[in-house]
Amino acid sequence: MERTAVRGRLTWQAATVTGLTPETAAVVTITLDPPDWPGHQAGQHLDVRLTAEDGYVAERSYSIASAPGEPLAITVERLEDGEVSPYLTEELRAGDQLELRGPIGGYFVWKPADASPLTLLAGGSGVVPLRAILRDRLRTGSDVPARLLYSARTLPDVIYRDELGQHHDGVAVSYTLTRAQPPGWTGHTGRIDAGLLADAAWPATAKPLAYVCGPTSFVETAAAGLVGLGYPPDRVKTERFGATGGH
Amino acid sequence: MSPISRGFRGRRRAPAGQEGRLPPGQYLTEDFPVLSAGPTPHTPLADWTFSITQGGATEQSWSWQEFRAVPSEDVTADIHCVTRWSKFDTRWRGVSVDTLLDQAGQDAPYVLAFCDGGYTTNLPIEDVTGGKAWVAFDYDGQPLEPEHGGPARLLVPHLYFWKSAKWVRGLALRDHDAPGFWETYGYHMYGDPWKEQRYAGD
Amino acid sequence: MDALDGNAIGGLLIDVFGAEMTAATGTCGACGDTGPVAGLVVYLKAPGTVVRCRICGNILMVFVKAHGMTCVDLTGMARLDQPGAA
Description:
The structure holds three protein chains of three kinds.
Chain A lengths: L12 E12 L2 E7 L11 E7 L5 E7 L8 E6 L7 H7 L5 E8 L13 E6 L3 H13 L6 E7 L8 H5 L5 E7 L10 E2 L4 H7 L8 E7 H13 L7 E6 L6
Parallel strand pairs in A: 7-8, 7-11, 8-9, 9-10, 11-12
Antiparallel strand pairs in A: 1-2, 1-6, 2-5, 3-4, 3-6
Chain B lengths: L26 E2 L20 E6 L2 E7 H6 L3 E8 L4 E12 H8 L5 E6 L4 E5 L9 E6 L2 E2 L9 E3 L12 E7 L6 H4 L18
Chain C lengths: L3 E2 L4 H8 L7 E4 L5 E3 L4 E3 L5 E4 L6 E8 L2 E5 L3 E5 L5
Antiparallel strand pairs in C: 1-4, 2-3, 2-8, 4-5, 5-6, 6-7
């Protein structure tokens, strides 16, 4: 059942952490059971709020990793000098409460009724909302063809690697590794550029809808690259994370 | 009251014995957070000037070379950001605002610092004189980085750090205290961290 | 420090406007550029949240939280239409 974007005020609720799954050495997927979740659309995010005993409060936003209808999940990358991500990825345990509110976002969302071919460009942890889109596509039985181009530093940094490696009709996944490649690597290397996009993205003539997500510098380059391929700017949806991921 | 997040430690308080150094509501940080309301300006040094103005007229102006030829001094200070982080013993080198105002030979009850990118902040003249303020060009022994306000920023450590305007290009002498950028949006006109003067009305 | 975009203030906009606004259409009062709020340039790490026009850099929105209230300044915005508005 599809739900529309939230109307009215958002309220905080304490969700129970039901599971923590390492995805890579620095990335953990956290599944959550909120008491009053209204549902969401693929692409949306939620806000998390942590309160220390002395009253200190920290808030962050995380893209929702799960598709509508699945157990709610976020995927968090641990940042070296982060304040919140080390807590979420190293301290948090199943059974703990995590305050959250959501879902949030009405622009960077995918609607299963949309028949446009999908070009998905992911930079690092920007893959999280795009994975939710692909899972929603599968769950709803959509047959729109999708091409995901995922830019990561190294192969061990690729999040959801096994899942993305599963073949699904109409979904093509390609990678570009920017810092180091394993021996015998046949995928792309280096940062996204016009040549890589011409190879991996839908041509503009297919009238695709693009979702580009990742660090700001990645998004600027990749989105400009699609516009350079002839994508109308309003057919390129962007979501920028901080330089080191997350908001 | 929000539920406590088990095991979340948040930010540090002051080390034992140094609690009196931390103003109310502040936390200690080891790093140097970068806060900005806009893109980092990059004015070439050949184009850079620092000016003292009054009534729209420039009373005195220094090019970068002239500014660097003015006697400067080392400063070590604790700094306090209104977003609640504080950093102890930060080390700077800069020109005392007293020196610059003396060379300009002008006086007024208030100043408005103006900067590349359009940022402004207002201060009483007493708070930028008497050895309380500098135009700083080095941080921690190195030239001040652009993201931290380089080539030069105002340094007024006894007030909240939004008064230490980054990318400063001059001081406008004023008869009246008129709100600068953040003051216009509701921040305190004076900003004493020891009285926790964060917002207008505090 | 990189700027983010209007997606990053989705929650803040709901608090202030009582509705999802990232898909709303904003028009810059200085240069006339029009587009979704999600595409605007957002500076989060400051004493307040500053939202600028991507084309000309003009400040469109400023949010300051003080004394339990959020103050909003929209004077840089010529127009802000709800998503789906005519």
